[in-house]
Amino acid sequence: MSSTASGKNGTWRNWGGNVSARPARQVAPASVAELAAAVRRAAEDGLKVKAVGTGHSFTSIAATDGVLIRPQLLTGIRNIDRTAMTVTVEAGTPLKRLNAALAREGLSLTNMGDIMEQTVSGATSTGTHGTGRESGSIAAQIKGLELVTADGSVLTCSEKENPEIFAAARIGLGALGIVTAITFAVEPIFLLTAREEPMTLDRVLAEFDQLWAENEHFEFYWFPHTGNTNTKRNNRSAGPEQPAGQLAGWFEDEFLSNGVFQLAQWVGRAAPATIPAIAQISSKALSARTYTDIPYKVFTSPRRVRFVEMEYAVPRAALAETLRELKSMVERSGLRVSFPVEVRTAPADDITLSTASGRDSAYVAVHMFRGTPYQAYFTAAERIFTAHEGRPHWGKVHTRDAEYFARVYPRFEEFTALRDRLDPERLFQNDYLRRVLGA
């Protein structure tokens, strides 16, 4: 089932609690044919259509006052092809279920983001990614797509079939049609060794190119108001499996990352002056640890502390400068930031509106605890990101519009032309798409 509560009187809310919508009706089709019929019926009734996953986007990308399509009945694996090494999965399948099912079959995705609550179509349509030197976002691992277009027809695309649609629809923002199934490249399951280690921010930035080059997956968290980071490097390993010890694992993942962290957020929200002191303590509380496990258990972790997030992709070469500017902005501003800043990377890919489209990218994500005013911090951070031609994550808070995107995405017009062709009547339009793609 979807993790998003449908509130009273048919109100839909996202996970972050910052977006709500009241659709005219909600439909949970049990088949692609039912979904296509719901799309045709909406068009006849003059209603817009949006599909929603688990509501993990912080933007109103899925909000509609028309027909809201809920995919919870369109789940499960359709087919595993061990010759081509692909898996075809229904669009509403949560990543958590896909990962567990693949592991049982001795298979795995190559790379994934840091949570797995989202549906496969929601995660890919917004450009969800982890960190990787050679391996890109979840959408970059797509080999084929099936989507229902505005006229209710079912269209399949891949590198060979409808390649111009395939180039765009892997991260389609819900603008080109409703994704009903996705074919992912998979590989035999492997082990990853994670090494987590505190390091000063100065050292991470000075050695960043080397840390990036020497590790398959490198990421770090910087604690504002401190010069401290926690680094994480994940690399393939011959084994043996050595999962994070139950107690140590519980202490780091549940107690520190969720329990104490939640408490620190409450204290910080009630008494912002305490935040720099709390940051010093929490940035020193994490100790170095190493563990080895199957990929999804290393890449992903539970996130129970609710927050609001902004994330931008900047050219990888601009990362150190971007972070130094962010640090001096926080120091000058008098802002109190209780959430660490997350930094990851992705190689250039060939997806039209991917944040890594055509350029090696570094991702910088800023967060605020849910219920804390985030505008001042996000506005100041966004000013820094956009000065570096940053591209915001499609599912996270930003204020950019079509005019800006036309500047930072060389293939922007290719996407909008395809949208004109597939959805000339703008059946899949909503306020968010009007803003980011233009009317």
What do these coordinates show?
This protein is of the alpha+beta class. Helices cover 33% and strands 24% of the residues. The chain has 14 helices and 20 strands. An 8-stranded antiparallel sheet has the order 16-13-15-14-18-19-17-20, sandwiched between helices. Strands 6-7-11-9-10 form a 5-stranded antiparallel sheet. A 3-stranded parallel sheet has the order 3-5-4, with helices on one face. Strand 9 and strand 10 form a beta hairpin. Helix 7 packs antiparallel against helix 8. It is globular. It starts with 11 loop residues before the first strand and ends with a helix. The N terminus is likely disordered.
- What is the molecular shape? globular
Average pLDDT taken over every residue: 92
User: What is the count of β-strands?
Assistant: 20
Helix content: 25-40%
Q: Give the neighbour order of strands across the main sheet.
A: 16-13-15-14-18-19-17-20
> Mind telling me the C-alpha Rg?
21 Å
**For the report, how would you describe the main beta sheet?**
8 strands, antiparallel
Beta-strand proportion: 15-25%
Low-confidence stretches: 1-6
* Total helical elements: 14
**Structure class:** alpha+beta
Distance between the termini: 34 Å
